[in-house]
Amino acid sequence: MSDIKKISSTELASFLLAGAALLLILHSGLLAALYSGLLVYALVHLIAPALSLRMSNQKAKLTSVAVLGSVIVLLLTLVLWFPLAFFLSDDGSYPVLVKKMADLIELSRNQIPEWIADYLPESAEALQQTLTAWMREHAGQAKHIGEQTGRTIAHLIIGMVIGAMAALYDTTRIHHFKPLAAAMHKRVVNLHQAFRQIVFAQVQIAAINAIFTGVFLLLILPLAGIHLPFVKTMILVTFVAGLLPVIGNLISNTVIVVISLSHSLSTAGLALLFLVTIHKLEYFLNAKIVGTKINARAWELLSAMLVMEALFGIAGVIAAPVFYAYIKSELSQAELV
Fold this sequence. Notes:
By secondary structure, the chain is mainly alpha-helical. It has 13 helices and no strands. The model has no long low-confidence stretch (mean pLDDT 76).
């Protein structure tokens, strides 16, 4: 029988506290705050060493890391603000979006079967009336979504500030932790490493996905004489949605197929065929990129996502890759797997 690494009572307590904290985060809807904090923490840790090497003075290091953290928080806040500013602007206002949706419906009306066309609004006014009726019917849900969106944005900003403060403390001070604090700090470091591995791998995957989609939309379709609207927007949506494992591809694919439908049914079918083929090929690439980072196979991640979705919904799907990578890292360090 092989020897199993002994775990001290202090480490066991830190594992239980870390597990309880992660469950509480999921149950309380604080995943956005956790991820935004970890993102800022990871970025500061990535850049700060280069600054620290050029500075021998402790005060200078402290100032430079503080400025770095502030700049990162500001940039990420601006990234959040731009989409909101777009929808508040004239170009992204409700009437303009309704008109664009009506135009797409009108263009696709002759390309789809009659039994589907019968269910589509006949004009921008009809579409607006349909949307208004739906909003009145679901006013309570719409209000809840608005409130939840505001809370999520607040959580993101607060999480980024906490992450910057934690990184500032962690990169500019020499720590002398008590046993439990040291064990908890190790849990945080391992979670940070798991998050960094998954997120940077997912950014790589999203970039590859956006490049393939760009080649299809900007090169292949125009060569075939097909010019779709909103091409740059679709590529951007593909990259941003691609940051979400699995569900991101479903979002971007739906957007591309719906817009392709405005040209013709055959174009939509061609787009769907291309996207399915590309994503099947990317499946192996994704498994290699993510699996190499965390030493996990694709079926392990998919199983974790399935279980987490059943327990926590969409938040569970988003949390699953990072949480699974973290748990596997802890088990590997304890020599249990």
